[in-house]
């Protein structure tokens, strides 16, 4: 199957002088559910209850990865042929955190107060983990409260601890606590006894000598089957109006091995099981939280800020840090092997933990050795991975000069540009901006990974690809098909991640909360269908009061993020 025009890469489009005609002669094939699923070759004789809408999320999905595999992915290829698809713009920065919360709420990062896995607290002048920032906005499925139209939400990342829903919710990685990850709580026992449900991987591609080890692929495949098995059970037992099914840990392997046989195999498993699940479904939406691109070079943002006079650090004996650091690393390794690291850290006085974190390269607390030595009084800016920049002196001239210099930065070894663009927060977020928002974002060029600092050589500004073969990209995917969905491949013009929540609510016949940042993608709907003919309505937004019970276990979450390679 050829890749539809709208989802080709920019480079691919530039190589085509004639644009394909947008009109599709088969767009009316969706007149009935039976005709829709017959073209996929599915058995439509099944008499089970129908799910109105299935929304499938695949972390890191990108046409640049699976586009060449469509001949071996018949379900996804069929959705693109009979429905529509487009490259979807993620949020800025395009990172799992905050992206999945932005998807769930229809809001930009500034509206939920989360910008990366960690962020800079300007008042305290320190870095904090966002797992301790509760989500007070409602997720779109929490607006579905009709007792006759329940929901089943399975595996959405960052959706932990689980909140009450009108149906069933199973929290997803990496925040979910193995001790308590479902609503209602009674569902958890069923998942574990009947499905041998595995919340997190038992293998670790990020630390493996060879990420293509068969046991890693087998482990992730088992988790995919478990989630589809649970989804089919929920369909039969609960008949939800909405089934939201998400696969987070597939991206675990995509980061490490990119276009490998193992990654392709996992996509084929998802495709086959998805085809089986769609037999009793009206409409299906498939999306990612962000895309991926292959890494060629690494840009160390904080090292560049130091080199260019924007960031200063307190000097300390390197030999002292290295000696004590080796001792702490040895202790850390021993505690991890004994499975006691989290317990020990929680039992230590804060003063002791602070000193351990200062020297231990394994970073058993939030702040790295480098970050602890930042001299904020003499610094004008500080950065985080994926191009997040905080300007510390609130000076517009400094911000503009920094923006211009970052935009001109090039790798002296390869000549590669670092950024496609450097944008101000006000260009990508609704205004007025909250005080906690970063100031600038480096929208890094293809082939570039942006990290904060090289732990082995803090002065290194550029380097070769490190742990990951592929890193996050702004362009993800959005695909849809079904009786309510158009067959026009050109229908979607640069849809955004935050548009999915309001679009799903409208598809399900619900009014849209007035505080969402996204829009209903009205062009997605087939002419004459109910969501096309029905006007978009609004409703007052809902919010939750934050409590201590609304945040994840900090130490366990941090260790899991380190295992995934998201924190170092």
UniProtKB/TrEMBL annotation:
GO molecular function: hydrolase activity
Domain of life per record: Archaea
Listed Basic and acidic residues bias regions: 551-562
Species assigned in the record: Haloplanus rallus
Protein's name according to its UniProt entry: Nucleotide pyrophosphatase
SUPFAM superfamilies: Alkaline phosphatase-like
Location of the region described as Disordered in the Swiss-Prot/TrEMBL record: 528-568
Signal peptide start and end residues: none
PANTHER family: BIS(5'-ADENOSYL)-TRIPHOSPHATASE, ECTONUCLEOTIDE PYROPHOSPHATASE/PHOSPHODIESTERASE
